[in-house]
Amino acid sequence: MHFSPLIDQLMDSLRCLPGVGPKTAQRMALHLLERDRVGAERLAQAMLKAVELVGHCEKCRNLSESPICRLCESSHRDESLLCVVEMPADVLAIEQTGSYRGHYFVLMGHLSPIEGIGPEQLGIAQLLSRVRNSAVEEIIIATNPTVEGEATAHYIVEQMRALPVKVSRIAHGVPLGGELEYVDGGTLVHALSGRRSLR
Amino acid sequence: MHFSPLIDQLMDSLRCLPGVGPKTAQRMALHLLERDRVGAERLAQAMLKAVELVGHCEKCRNLSESPICRLCESSHRDESLLCVVEMPADVLAIEQTGSYRGHYFVLMGHLSPIEGIGPEQLGIAQLLSRVRNSAVEEIIIATNPTVEGEATAHYIVEQMRALPVKVSRIAHGVPLGGELEYVDGGTLVHALSGRRSLR
Ligand SMILES: [Zn+2]
Ligand SMILES: [Zn+2]
């Protein structure tokens, strides 16, 4: 549409948001300009600040604006447990259940040779050195129960073979082919408590 | 959730977008930070620019970044037709049908005593003086076929009583109680061509 260059540009830019098509982008742009310019300005500033300052935690690789994230810095977490997940959203999903008090390691993806994502991109060496040099006694692998997530879990188990730690996989209460992020809290609690040792 | 202050703030700010709840805001924030920081920055800049520079056209009251909007400035439009709509989205919907070549007047709302929206807020005096001092021969009232839209249409017809112009209302091909913005193009074309004279 040819509305006005700046409004067209705003509608166009809004489409970088997941799930936002042309019709939704139009509704969002007009809503902001007609009814919530204060909200739009606050959102823009929050975006710029986050993009500039949010990086990754040096310890767990999760998104964080400080070198070491809040979870890693907390003294109230169980140092003997380390849960390995694919993405930051998985940390949020598990934290929201309130039933896990250990630490995390965020791969920021899964093995995918086609996309050029190997052990290096997932920080596997960092994970191994962390396990070697810390009080971790059990690794809970909570990658997604998808083909790629299972392959990634399998690879990590292989790499851990020589290390003196327990390695477990969350129970498949999570439906096969599903994404951890979209699973309800109850199922996640069940999957965590029903985890089985992999050796 | 307590993720990290800047990410929490971003998730929170995203909820000013219509239809965005906490779960969607979370997915959007993580998507932007993990996968599309360039898009996030462009969106933030587009938002700031639009909020700063987009005002209202002096002639038709539609959203515009120039004092007179593109539609009002165009020499290819029919000066004898003036379509009165509630919102900018209605102009977009009618323009997208490609079947109307006249001008517009955007009320930016409808009469609503409860919300304190009267003739002054809708620019009715401006509309009347525009009709008096221009080549307009027919006013097409295309407010929504809702209770408030009908009341607004009725009020405008009353105000036009003394003026030597034809006044018409778009046909009710548009379902009663519906919003013009969400009606398909075919129905809108029908409603425009089937408009009936109100006197
Ligand atoms: Zn961390
Ligand atoms: Zn205009």
Automatic annotation (TrEMBL), chains A, B:
Role description: May play a role in DNA repair. It seems to be involved in an RecBC-independent recombinational process of DNA repair. It may act with RecF and RecO.
Protein name per Swiss-Prot or TrEMBL? Recombination protein RecR
Note the superkingdom of the native organism: Bacteria
Q: Where are the zinc fingers (C4-type)?
A: 57-72
Biological process GO annotation list?
Answer: DNA recombination; DNA repair
Q: Does the keyword Repressor apply?
A: no
Alphabetical UniProt keywords: DNA damage, DNA recombination, DNA repair, Metal-binding, Zinc, Zinc-finger
Keyword Lipoprotein among UniProt keywords: no
The UniProt GO MF terms for this protein read:
DNA binding; zinc ion binding
Tell me the protein family, please: Belongs to the RecR family.
Q: Locate the Toprim domain: which residues?
A: 80-175
PROSITE patterns recorded for this chain? RECR, TOPRIM
